[in-house]
Design brief:
It is a single chain. This protein is α/β, with parallel strands linked by helices. It has helices spanning about 45-60, 60-65, 80-90, 105, 150-155, and strands at about 15-20, 20-25, 35-40, 70-75, 95-100, 110-115, 120-125, 125-130, 135-140. The strands form 3 sheets. It has a 5-stranded mixed beta sheet. Strand 6 and strand 7 form a beta hairpin. It is globular.
Length: about 160
């Protein structure tokens, strides 16, 4: 079942790259904060690299000015890929959350089959606003679309 507005995020552990190496990130990341979380099918993929991540980098200040405490990007990629992608994109203000085995994508019911592209099971493209672990906004893209998961769209909901 797909997560809905008003639902609490599942207790799934992500991994993020730090100066000391990979570190687990649990539900405490969302505790007591307003988080703009967005998901992409894959790091370094065309739309994700040319539009989705850059949009959140560009609008980070605007999101924070409207009460967002943290911005996070998740993808079904390993922590090394997510770390390298964030670094190459200049995403210092965005927490890159690796969902290496797709556990989060599966738990929130937002997976897609990328097998015809050699990608296997991945996350759908979406954005959500999460307050203290509870989903307040959820914007899931239709297949092949890039409209409602953008930083601008999420800003308009704040």
């Amino acid at each position: 079942m797909t997560i809905q507005i008003g639902d609490t995020l599942p207790d799934v552990t992500f991994t993020t790259m730090t100066a000391d190496g990979p570190e687990p990130v649990g539900k405490d990341f969302f505790a007591g904060k307003t988080v703009a979380l967005f998901a992409v099918p894959g790091a370094f993929t065309p739309t994700c690299s040319a539009k989705h991540l850059p949009g959140f980098i560009e609008k980070a200040g605007d999101l924070k000015a409207k009460g967002v405490d943290a911005i996070a990007c998740t993808s079904v990629n390993d922590v090394f890929v997510m770390g390298a992608w964030g670094k190459s994109a200049g995403a210092e203000g965005i927490t890159m959350l690796a969902d290496g085995n797709g556990a989060f994508a599966q738990a929130v019911g937002l997976t897609m089959d990328g097998s015809k592209f050699g990608m296997g099971t991945r996350s759908q493209r979406y954005s959500m606003l999460v307050e203290d672990g509870v989903v307040k906004q959820l914007n899931v893209e239709g297949p092949g679309e890039f409209k409602v998961s953008t930083a601008d769209h999420l800003l308009g909901q704040l």
